[in-house]
Amino acid sequence: MIVLSRDPTRSARRTATGTVLLAVGATVAAIAAVHWVAARSGSAWSPGGDLAVYRQAVQAALADGTPYETSRDGYGFVYPPFAVLALTPLAWFGPTAGYWGWTVVSALAVPAVVWLLVDHLTPAGDRRRPTLLAAGTLAVLPLSPIAGTLLLGNVNILLLALLLLDLLLITGRHQGVLVGVAAGIKLTPLVFVGYLLLTRRTRAGVTALLSFLGTVAVGFLLLPAASVTFWGGAFLDSSRTRPPGEEAFGSSIRGAALNLLPGPGPAAWLPVSVVVGVVGLAVAVWASRRGEELTGILTCAVTGLLVSPVTWYAHWVWCVPLLALLAARTWHRPGPARLLVGALWLVFALPLPWWVAYVVGWAPVPERAWVMPVELLYTLTGAGLLVLAAVWLRRSAPVRPGRATVGGRL
């Protein structure tokens, strides 16, 4: 009898390759499906809407203009000048090719993010990793922050990948560089500069700050007029996030205040945001010092989403690492703990079927009639997560020195 030997390493590589291809294929197929629905519905949320704003800003800068004097259907460019430079390759392609190229890159970032989390939450050599990669990718595709980001061509998923890569994988003198670059593209990641400094990673925090300041300097060097406009006050103008006359609320504390009490001044929401910011960062630092690093990162991210003046549903792409962490903690705990993961998955998946029904005409309900409840739900969810993190830290034992700081194992 002839026995054919099998190479376990080659078999594992084939399985991993097949799983990655499945995850990427499912991601691209999901985007194609959403694109097909939106293109045939006449939806105001046209595919690539945000990407078109980026493209117009780049074209204005290349024409020696300023990206902050342009808008598309009333939506203006609100990112720092360095973002224009980073997005310059958009001018090399036509609108259709640019949109699909951007979509593919963003789609590839989805399984990349899931893989970073699987690698962080599972022991090295765990044979379940390819399966978890595929299952995780398929699970997050229907989530509205992911689907919405991919549909609109936003930069959220790519920034999430940069931040997780820096905070979870990079160590030593290079940690903080990608945090600073991400903040140079979009200001909200600046909250992680404070997180690094407060968790006594002074070198990483200073590196992140210097990297960010480097992006500002590059902006002044190559786009001086745009830099003067942006840093001279345009970065404080939240009115450019929506066309004139349209409501621009969102799911931050400010958005909740405007949803519940239309028209309040800063005194109605700013003090609350300051308190939440201080408490949220304190809980994040507490988590990091107890060895719960991913909990600290997520608490910091949620704090940033709550205190930001404008937070849209697509900004909640942090739901992906959140669900991964909760799944890891409840993996061996049947009952109510697992129900929490399912409930949170539904919270972040909920807007997508509503949106599909709305754009295809199955539910001709005014946008604000269902968007406002979702925005308030996201705000309450974020606040609840900060409380949940504090309760968990109070009840759990600190991670012993030498243990992996993952906050759970799958």
UniProtKB/TrEMBL annotation:
GO cellular component term of the entry, any: plasma membrane
Record field: transmembrane: 20-38, 99-118, 139-165, 177-198, 210-234, 268-287, 294-309, 339-356, 376-393
Subcellular location, record wording: Cell membrane
Amino-acid biosynthesis as UniProt keyword: no
Gene Ontology molecular function terms on file: hexosyltransferase activity
Entry membrane topology: Multi-pass membrane protein
KW Glycosyltransferase (keyword) present: yes
Domain of life of the native organism: Bacteria
Chief localization: membrane
Pfam families: GT87
UniProt-listed InterPro entries: GT87 (IPR018584)
Keywords, alphabetical: Cell membrane, Glycosyltransferase, Membrane, Transferase, Transmembrane, Transmembrane helix
Family listed: Belongs to the glycosyltransferase 87 family.
Protein name: Alpha-1,2-mannosyltransferase
Natural source organism: Micromonospora narathiwatensis
